[in-house]
Every structure is written in C-alpha cells, then in structure tokens.
Amino acid sequence: xxxxxxxxxxxxxxxxxxxxxxxxxxxxxxxxxxxxxxxxxxxxxxxxxxxxxxxxxxxxxxxxxxxxxxxxxxxxxxxxxxxxxxxxxxxxxxxxxxxxxxxxxxxxxxxxxxxxxxxxxxxxxx
Length: 126
Hints:
Layout: E1 7-13, E2 17-22, E3 37-43, E4 64-72, E5 77-82, H1 84-87, E6 93-102, E7 108-120
Parallel strand pairs: 1-7
Antiparallel strand pairs: 2-5, 3-4, 3-6, 4-5, 6-7
C-alpha cells in the first residue's frame, strides 16, 4: 500500500463540500473496497473537548462527523464531505481531519488525514 501523505483541503462555511479520492494498490491497480466501511471526522484540534458537556472524569470530544462513502468499491473510490447546514456553524480557520477504513478482516486503517481550511463565504443569496 502507498504511504499516506497529509492532504490539504479548502471549504467555505455555509456551502456544501465534497471531494472524491481513489485508493490504489502498490502496482497502481484500484484497491477493492467491497465489504469495507469508511468513516471520517474533523475537529478544531486533535484533542478538542466539548467544554459544556465534559467533566473531569468523562471527557466529551468535540468532533464533527464527515459524510464518508465508498462510491465505487471495485474502482477504489470514496468521497468525504459535509452539507451546507453542517458547515454553516463552523468557525473560520483550520480543522484537522482523518478518514478510517474498516477492512473486511476487521482491521482499521487510517487512509487519509490532513487539514481542512474553512473560510467564511462572501457571496450570498438574498
């Protein structure tokens, strides 16, 4: 399998966001993702806590789930993203994200990680 390289992404608060990625084997053939499950999340920083809900004995992490879907299992493609209603509440700045694949054998593999830069959209529909 290829080594993972952090991927920088850019999105606007209040807008839909989606990006498709392709997984390949070492020989550059598409990786078969049949019967695999993919999941993704992002946070302002890796140890972001929800201060309103956390206690000293029970931390509650402040993460934002990403819509993660395998779009072509045999072709090795998957997408990540979020809709405008999710991004509307995001603060401007950088968020760290990662995407994890649950393989058919039950092992978990981080397949993508990096930073998503969120900016405030200037255009609006009135």
